Amino acid sequence: MAIELPENVVVSKLDALGSWCRKNSLWPMPFATACCGIELMATGASRHDLARFGAEVFRFSPRQCDLMIVAGRVVMKMLPVLQRIWQQMHEPKWCISMGACASTGGVFDTYSVVQGIDRFVPVDMYVPGCPPRPEQLIQAIIDLQDKIQREGTIDGSEFSSVTRQQRKRALMELPIIHQPSQTVSRTN
Amino acid sequence: MPVTQPTVDSLRDRFDNIVESEFRGQTRVVVPRGSAFEAIAFLKEERGFDLLVDLTCIDYLNYRDAEDRFGLAYLLANTSTDERLTVRVMLNEPDLTVVSIVPLYEGANWMEREAWDMFGIVFDGHPDLRRILMPEEFSAHPLRKDYPLQGRGERHNFPVLTRGEA
Question: What's this model's pTM, rounded to 2 decimal places?
Answer without folding.
Answer: 0.81
